Amino acid sequence: MAAQSRVYVIDGARTPFLKAKAPLGPFTGADLAVGCGRPLLARQKFAPTAFDEVIIGAAMPSADEANIGRVIALRLGCGDKVPAWTVMRNCASGLQALDSAYANIRAGKANLVLAGGTDAMSHAPLLYSAAMVKWFGAMGAAKTMGQRVGLFAQLRLKNMLAPIIAIERGLTDPTVKLSMGQTAEIVAKRFGINRQMMDEFAARSHRLVLEGRKNGHFSEIETLIDGKGNVYAEDDGVRSDSTPEKLAKLKPYFDKVYGNVTPGNSSQITDGAAMLILASEEAVKRHSLSPIAAVVDTHWAALDPSEMGLGPVHAITPMLQRNGLGLKDMDTIEINEAFAAQALGCVAAWKSEAYCKDKLGLPGAFGDVDMAKFNPDGGAIAVGHPIGASGARVTLHAMKTLQRTGGKYGVASLCIGGGQGGAILLERV
Questions:
Q1: How crowded is residue 81: how many other Cβ atoms within 10 Å of its Cβ?
Q2: SS3 for 112?
Q3: Which of 62, 271, 315, 380 has its CA 20 to 30 A from that of 241?
Q4: Is 415 a catalytic residue?
Q5: Is 78 a catalytic residue?
Q6: How does pLDDT run across 280-311, given as a tens digit for each residue?
């Protein structure tokens, strides 16, 4: 199989993003991916068995869905002979899946790939403490009743049985010992982003999602129905009453004394999935496909974990430079809204001559962002951020925006816990 010159995106779909309101949401990660994958594949000109591989990004698949990519592929009817695998790059796991598909097609290793991401964050497990795990191990090894009685005497229910919330551990950087929200506070302080700015941006996100919904800008969403017959047709974390005034009443969560980052100006803990079909020129011709967009380039970057929110700046800038483009050439810019402070921080960093010189090695500021083209239909503050799915979601929506507006270039990007950024450059076909 010869190396390919161009990689196309043929189609895509996502689920409604469902806010985690209860201990367990109605769908697992695989359920979500299958829920949007089935209608996506049903409208294609080829059979699911035609894929060369399936690649899924997932940050927290359940214990029952080991190598969730393979579980999803089999449930979608791709058959025994289509290999499938799972990737994980924290918040950009879905984008990593797309990039892996892009790379394999470019290398001539594949022609047709189903790729995307999923996470049911409401299904994140509760964990036992290390002391409790050791106690269980000792109890299992005990051979006499006396040994067991002695172990029960050592049991301290309040301390040893206190559950550890896995999602909180996962959203805390183990190197710098900061939660993602605390890193957003650092970014806000660096660029003077105050509480009012954060709350106004958060309210903007909700308002733009509602406007986009009214104008039919979310055609990529496929309705889900759970086992009880309940219908889920739209992102359910969006609020029509989210105003700067109401958001201002919320208390800071990550730095309760000096902070400004609240649950209201942060992304929501959410369940969701997004799936895309990528194809080579050969596959486009073979199956008479009509691409939405071409993948022009991708880029990954790293930075100080304590300012991880600025990852998109470090990923997008060199990618655009490599292709002779600037921010002004982008007809849509989708940056995942992990936090209002983080999204606004990216805009501020590009405008900062000092930051661009010091951190990016540029001669001056990279440029201004046209906010009318920045997350034009809102973002994760309103719709949510299922970690494994968001990279696929922002990519898919950027393509849909280009298709709807007739724009030429679009970029999608995410910050990544641990101090990284990922970006993809798209061109409308």
A1: 7
A2: strand
A3: 271
A4: yes
A5: no
A6: 999 999 999 999 999 999 999 999 999 999 99
